[in-house]
Every structure is written in structure tokens, then in C-alpha cells.
Write a structure and sequence with these properties.
heterodimer; A: about 200 residues; 10 helices; about 0% strand; B: alpha+beta; 13-stranded mixed beta sheet; three-stranded mixed beta sheet; 18 strands; about 25% helix; about 35% strand
């Protein structure tokens, strides 16, 4: 039964690969120091390749599997460029492939996660936050929310999409985790990195 | 090109998020579901993006736990607390990075005084900051020399060799930089970088306004260069263009002890490294001179630059008898 097989494959992706996002993002940043590629693009592409894996049952170490894919994405991105960034090529020799699984804290503590989500919603623009609160806290349907706030259903949808996009990115970056990754591209960080081989 | 992929990623994630929102609505029709299946079957990119948004949506269901029991509906339940969040702003890595910029010791070696002027010079691989009596600053790059003459009516600095950044402090007297015959006059507080060429110079204005007169002997128009403008002049004339902040940072990367390449050819890059090091790099194969490259390197580490080049291109490196590095084509 094909549909069941697809569903199993997606379930595997949800369970084993998606929770690695913050770690993969941190790993991807090391390939993007020259600013020619967006690390989020690399992770996005790596997810697409990972979910396509038909032989997922044979993947013994999802972390190593995902980082290997990410590395290939980075290499392909490098090959696609018009101007070859030799710093990035040098990085390939320098950045060790990860053989062990990244330290995915697959389950953040539930109270911690609740706090993170509430914080994310609080950061949304007023109307978007109200729509989102009515949908996710009070479980009102989009139609009911539209009536209550005097909006069209499509506007309600737009606000929900906006709120969801904000939260999924926030969960993917998992700000406030212990592993401190250099978020910006500060000169000093790049200097330290380039300074010694 | 890269920016397009970013917006493509966002477009796919938006579409995925909209499907998540629609499918979770009881009003979702069979036709909608079929349309979703068709969209998801288009690519694994769609499939993976949908899973990502769907998982986040499911996790957001936990917010129901925040619902106060037996309370009327409060749509502003999750409004932000009224608390300043300014403390977060001071923590940007940028700010930290800038704060960590190299602090150079003021040195008195290499200073000679003659004929009413004071000369400051640097050796190959050396950088130096000079603070003048009016608090103007000069930062000298490798193998460079300036002669400073402050007189009653004018502050004059001549760039004799190499490259320097001049930060003119405000003063009643005009601040004038001379380089290969040309005269540049800074208006008030300004910052300009000047690099000598064989018969002219390149000028980059980072702050303030600078009036450039390439040939003071000729009654010709002078150029007024605003911040963010770079000008080049030589025997054939002068031209100015606006450049981005990123490009200004690359031009001035040497102040951080770095060379920032952005599409320059291999021979240009090699010439740049050779300014900073006694160990010279030579291209013995004209065929490889035109390779274009980008990257960020330490000025004093030609070896790591060479390693990067040889691992990125079909180029091999060898050391010759006098310790210089020769680059030639591989195979």
C-alpha cells in the first residue's frame, strides 16, 4: 500500500530529522561564512533531500545522515556559483563531517516550550496576535474569528499563516538553547576562524 | 541570485503554512484536500516544507493549556507584557565584533623629522596609527609613508608611499591630503582612504565630504566626493562612483588585518598579498591568472590563501630556491 509507505516515511522524517533543525542550522552556518549562501536555504534543501529517502529504514544514525546531506547541499551550492569562494572551499577541508548525531534536544522541556511559544505569539503584531490567540488558545474556527473581529476569512488566514511562519522559524532556531552559535557574521568571528589552519 | 533562493524558500514555506491552516479548518472541502495532495506531490521540497509547518502548528496546540478556565474569551490574552526589551539590543554579535576590533599601539619608531614636516612610515606587513596634535588620526597600511606638515593656515599630509586612512578632526584650518600631485581637501569631520597607484591614486570617502582636484596646476573642475563614493584618478583622467557599505568594508579590510576578495582575479589577489609579505607568490602560468575568486583572508598568511586556491582550483603550488611560492596549472 503506497499511501501507507509514504505516511511512514513522513512520520520518520517528522520524528528523526525535523527535530535536528537547530543543530543543522548551526552546522550550515559554518559553510556560509562568506555570505554567498543562506544557511536557512541549505537546511531547507537538506530537508527536501532527506524526506525523499526511500531507504529510510536503513538509516541507522539520522544525525550523521542529515549532516552528510547538508554537506552535499553546501558543496552543490558552491559548485553553482559564478565566483568560487575559496574560503568556503577551504572550509570544506576544515569542517569535519559529523559522524555522531548532533546533540538534538529533541524534546525541550514542555514548560519551557510553552513559554517559548507564548513569547513568540506576544511578539506578533496586534491583530495577527489576536487572530492567532483566538485560533490556537480558544480553538475558534477561522469563520468565527472573522465574524468576531470583523475581518474577511482570507485576512484571518493571512494572519494565521504569518503567525505560524514566525513560530516555526522560532522553533527551528530554538533561541535560548545552550549551544551558543555565532548568529551574526562579525568580523572577529571570521577572523578567528580564518586565522589558523 | 542567492537572494532569489531565499525568497523562493520563503514562498514555499508560506504556501505550506497556508495548507496547514486550511486543512485544519473544518470548512475544508474535498476539492481543497485534493488540491493540497497535488501540491505536495509536486516535489519533495513541498513535502518537507509542509511537514515542518505542520509540526510547528501541532506544537502550538499546547497553547490551549494557557486558556483560563471559566473566563470569558480574552483575545489579548497573549499580549506582550509592558516591559522594555532594549537590553537585548546591546548584545548583537556585530556590536561585539566591532568592539573587538584591533587596538593598535601608538609607536614612535619610524618617525623622522625634516624640513618642517614629520614623516611616519611602516615596514612590510606592519600597520600603524598616528594621532596628530589636533586629534586627527592617520592609519598606515603595509609599506607606507606619510609626511605631516601642520602650519598656521593649513594642515597638510602627503602620502608618499602605499596606503592610508585619514580621519580629519574638526579644526579651523583645512585638512589637505596630497597624493601624486592631486590635492584632496576634507570638509569638517571626515574619513577618507587613499591608495597610491603608479601615476595616480584611488580615494574612498567613508565619512564627510572631500573635494578632489587631480591636477591643481590645471584650471579644471574639482570633484566633490560624498561619503560612500570612490574615485580613481591617473594620467588618463578621473572617475567617481558610488559604492556600497559592503564594498567600503572590503576596501578597508586591511584595518582588521585582512584581505577581502570579491570576484577579483588570481593575479590581482596575488599582487595584493605580495604587498604584505616578504615571501612572494608568483604565477608562472598565465593561463590561471584570470581565475575569479572571493574570500576573506589574513594579510600575513599567504600560505592559507595558497592552500585555499590549490584546493579550489586545478592549481599546484611549489616553493622555489629563495622561499617564494610558485603557482602553476595542475595536470
Amino acid at each position: 500500500m503506497m499511501a501507507q509507505e509514504d505516511e511512514d516515511r513522513r512520520a520518520w522524517f517528522r520524528r528523526e530529522i525535523l527535530p535536528l533543525e537547530p543543530d543543522l542550522l548551526a552546522y550550515a552556518r559554518r559553510f556560509c561564512r562568506d555570505g554567498q549562501t543562506d544557511p536557512e536555504d541549505l537546511v531547507h534543501e537538506a530537508f527536501a533531500r532527506a524526506i525523499a529517502c526511500r531507504t529510510w529504514r536503513e538509516v541507522g544514525n539520522p544525525g550523521a545522515f542529515a549532516t552528510r546531506i547538508l554537506r552535499n547541499c553546501a558543496l552543490d551550492a558552491l559548485r553553482r556559483r559564478k565566483v568560487l569562494t575559496i574560503t568556503a572551499v577551504a572550509d570544506f577541508d576544515r569542517i569535519e563531517p559529523l559522524d555522531e548525531a548532533p546533540s538534538a534536544q529533541a524534546v525541550i522541556e514542555s514548560r519551557e516550550e510553552l513559554r517559548l511559544l507564548a513569547e513568540a505569539i506576544a511578539e506578533l503584531p496586534t491583530q495577527c496576535r489576536r487572530v492567532f490567540t483566538l485560533r490556537k488558545v480558544y480553538s475558534l474556527s477561522p469563520d468565527e474569528i472573522a465574524v468576531r473581529l470583523g475581518l474577511s476569512v482570507s485576512t484571518v488566514e493571512k494572519h494565521l499563516v504569518k503567525g505560524l511562519r514566525y513560530c516555526s522559524d522560532k522553533l527551528g532556531r530554538r533561541i535560548g538553547r545552550k549551544s551558543k552559535v555565532d548568529e551574526g557574521r562579525s568580523w572577529s568571528a571570521r577572523r578567528d576562524h580564518d586565522a589558523k589552519r | 541570485m542567492e537572494r532569489e533562493t531565499g525568497s523562493r524558500r520563503e514562498a514555499v514555506r508560506q504556501a505550506a503554512a497556508l495548507w496547514v491552516v486550511r486543512l485544519d479548518d473544518a470548512a475544508c472541502s474535498a476539492a481543497d484536500r485534493a488540491a493540497f495532495e497535488a501540491w505536495r506531490d509536486e516535489s519533495h521540497e513541498h513535502e518537507a516544507a509542509f511537514e515542518r509547518e505542520a509540526v510547528a502548528w501541532a506544537r502550538l496546540a499546547r497553547l490551549r493549556a494557557m486558556r483560563p478556565s471559566a473566563e470569558p474569551l480574552d483575545r489579548d490574552l497573549l499580549a506582550p507584557e509592558r516591559r522594555p526589551v532594549l537590553s537585548r539590543l546591546g548584545q548583537s554579535t556585530w556590536a561585539r565584533g566591532m568592539a573587538a576590533a584591533a587596538v593598535l599601539a601608538l609607536s614612535v619608531a619610524g618617525v623622522t623629522t625634516f624640513g618642517g614636516g614629520t614623516a611616519y612610515a611602516t615596514a612590510i606587513g606592519e600597520r600603524r596609527v598616528v594621532v596628530l596634535s589636533d586629534n586627527s588620526r592617520i592609519e598606515l597600511n603595509t609599506d607606507s609613508k606619510v609626511v605631516v606638515r601642520y602650519r598656521r593656515g593649513v594642515r597638510e599630509v602627503r602620502l608618499v608611499r602605499g596606503e592610508a586612512v585619514f580621519e580629519a578632526a574638526s579644526d579651523a584650518r583645512p585638512f589637505v591630503v596630497r597624493a601624486n600631485d592631486a590635492v584632496m581637501q576634507a570638509d569638517g569631520v571626515s574619513e577618507l582612504a587613499v591608495r597610491l597607484g603608479s601615476d595616480g591614486a584611488a580615494v574612498t570617502v567613508k565619512r564627510g565630504v572631500v573635494a578632489l582636484d587631480p591636477e591643481p596646476t590645471e584650471p579644471k573642475d574639482e570633484l566633490r566626493l560624498k561619503a560612500g563614493v570612490a574615485a580613481v584618478y591617473n594620467a588618463t583622467g578621473s572617475r567617481a562612483r558610488t559604492i556600497s557599505d559592503g564594498e567600503i568594508d572590503r576596501v578597508l579590510a586591511w584595518r582588521q588585518g585582512a584581505i577581502a576578495l570579491n570576484g577579483q582575479s588570481l593575479d590581482q589577489a596575488v599582487a595584493e598579498f605580495n604587498r604584505y609579505n616578504r615571501q612572494q607568490v608568483r604565477i608562472v602560468d598565465p593561463a590561471i591568472a584570470g581565475l575569479r575568486l572571493a574570500g576573506y583572508f589574513q594579510t600575513t598568511e599567504p600560505r592559507s590563501f595558497v592552500d585555499a586556491v590549490t584546493s579550489a582550483f586545478p592549481v599546484k603550488a611549489s616553493e622555489d630556491a629563495d622561499g617564494d611560492i610558485r603557482l602553476s596549472r595542475k595536470g
